[in-house]
Amino acid sequence: MDPARTHKKVPVAELNRSACLGPDGAVAQVTRCLKMISGRWKLPILFRLYADGMQRSSLLLRDIPDISQKMLTQHLRELEADGLIRRTDFGEKPPRVEYRLTDRGEGLMPVLLSARQFSEDYDQLA
Fold first, then answer.
1. What is the band of 118 on the pLDDT scale with cuts at 50, 70, 90?
2. What does UniProt give as the signal peptide span (predicted)?
3. Could you identify which of 16, 90, 104, 111 might form a hypothetical disulfide with 96, taking C-beta atoms 3.0 to 4.6 angstroms apart as the criterion?
4. How far apart are CA 2 and CA 89, in angstroms?
5. 106, 84, 105, 97: which is closest to 56 by C-alpha?
6. Is 110 helix (H, G, I), strand (E, B) or coil?
7. Comparing C-alpha atoms, which of 77, 78, 41, 79 is closest to residue 60?
8. pLDDT at 95 over 90
9. What is the rounded distance in angstroms from the CA atom of residue 107 to the CA atom of residue 101?
């Protein structure tokens, strides 16, 4: 086999390539996951919520250097829309809102921690 044609090494039966490349295949699912976490501030937000369990937006602003209120709000809304975090508004004056990971967000964290470990291991090999 030509070494440049590595895509043929994917362990999928020749007649069932849609399991990998189809609209609901592995590539589409991983791409969907990557879109959920893409954005400069989404990973820092997820890791802060994972570390502390619950955060108010003022604490996230303080703990994540250089993030603006606008970008924090935008990314929190996107993460909430994707079902990775839950927003709890207590309906108080002054407003009190807390954010925490959902079960789906908790399920994503082992994947992100594995990616971190992969990166650390990769650096040691380089």
1. very high
2. none
3. 90
4. 58
5. 97
6. helix
7. 41
8. no
9. 9
Q: What is the mean pLDDT of residues 94-105?
A: 95
The CA distance from 44 to 61, in Å, is 11
**54-56 sheet: strands from edge to edge:** 54-56, 97-101, 85-89
The radius of gyration of the chain from alpha carbons, rounded to an integer in Å, stands at: 19
Map out the domains of the chain with their CATH numbers. 40-125 (1.10.10.10)
What number is the average pLDDT over the span 67-94? Answer: 95
Q: Are strands 54-56 and 85-89 parallel, antiparallel or unpaired?
A: unpaired
